[in-house]
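Entry for the shared binder. Reason: the reviewer on the internal report wants the predicted structure included alongside the sequence.
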Amino acid sequence: MSLFDHNLPLHLLKGDEHGIDIHMVVELLRTRFGISSRFVLPNDLRLVPNPEDKDGYRLCCVVREGESQETERLSSLIDHNGEILEEIHQVGLELHQRELRALSPEMLRQISLRCFNDMRTILLVHDKRMLGIVMQELESLVERNIITPAQAKTLNKGITETLLPGSSELDRFIEYCKGSPELKNEYILKPIRGGKGEGIVFGEDLDAADWVSRLEDLRSPILVPGTCIVQRRVNQARYDVVLNPTGGLARYPLVGTYHSIQANDLRHASHPSHITDVSNTLRQTGILKVSLQFEDDSSHYLQHLMVGLHKQHGHGLPITHSASRGWFWDIRPNSTSFQTPSHQARSETMEEFPWHTDCSYEEAPPRYFALQVLREDQCGGGTLSVMNVGRLSSLLSTSTCTALLRPEYRITVPLEFVKDDAKRHVVGGLMATDAKGLPSMVRFREDIVTPLTAEAALALQELKNCLLGQKVQAETLQLTSDCLPRGSVILMDNYRWLHARSNVRDPERHLRRVRWDARPFPTSLKANSRVQ
């Protein structure tokens, strides 16, 4: 929102590309901020000479019949050469490269002075060679202090292997393919200036000779029609997606797996629109990352956010972590001084913490929890793994889901979290169903669960085996320190997402946790009931 002036008219230059995101932005600006946008075609652009302007021109667009009413509140109209025009003060671009090339140099210059998304993005970043160039330049970028070593590490880990035409890397790759014909199945050919998947060739669709022949054609860096890059194939996990307007369920790969927003200053935590964004995202998807753009070692952001969610959206206030702790619990390795007297919590160790739900031992577990990163693990450990319970339940048999729903498990309260000596365990089910009757909620921590029947024991064993299996690994979102650096806050639905932690390697790793909105865990089935 800081990219443009909210007090000036907003124009969006769009041609042949129908687009999806741009229409979502227009709707967001209209409904949430009351900002009207106007689409402009390249052919409707006009340059009006203006000696008083240091750039010599006004950039304008044609106002068609019937549009004058829409522009009256934005700016005065100009009558030039028999056309009614509106001046463009700021513009966003959604054009193909060929549409940019069709504009005159002066028109491009005037647009570049007013566009808030850099024109070079279209000309350079859309070129598929860019990723390979970035990978080649990482060392140089660090040496010239353009990026930090940590940023270079993130790019190196996050950018898929990309081989450029005419590069030495491609020459070596060709020799590897000659010696290992099956290697082609792990790669694709992607047109350098293509888009939307057009023209991509999968190595597995070519025989070994054709694949090597296509690679040989790329030994020259000279760009000719059909020139491709070679890229490692990414096998994406598929997720259940509800298709509107039919409401049907289908399996599709998704790009992006959790919502991420920024909080520029502490005031965001008390702003109604920010609080609503957090509440809606947690309700809809159950996971959200907030990147704090300010220092907040005292966790004032989370304190204010908890109060706002309580007052505006009815969330329960945070629970106390133990008999001796308040809202917040510091998660950092400590072998001598514990937050609960005489008892060390597992979060205070450097050990791996397998799949679990927070406070699964409570009759009323908190619906949500948040982790603020005060210092990430700088030695490569402490990865947070998260798994959607709806996906997990789809990997289990119906009989197992039925057994997990029944209140046939004793869950022991860990010593460090005992609040009442008379309450050392609870009895209940490990799963619960949502409003649609689907088993999409869980409470689980293996080391404190005891099955009370033979059927419950079998179901628990299948659940544990499933969590260790390859299918769950394929569906798991791994949030490393690169994903959650200092200043990150990850908020999660404690019922709908299981989480785990790998071994901590950095003794200075420090997170702060808050849990809120405690409510009785749903009891979906009685003994001897069955899921249909």
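Summary line for the report: The two ends are 48 Å apart (CA to CA).
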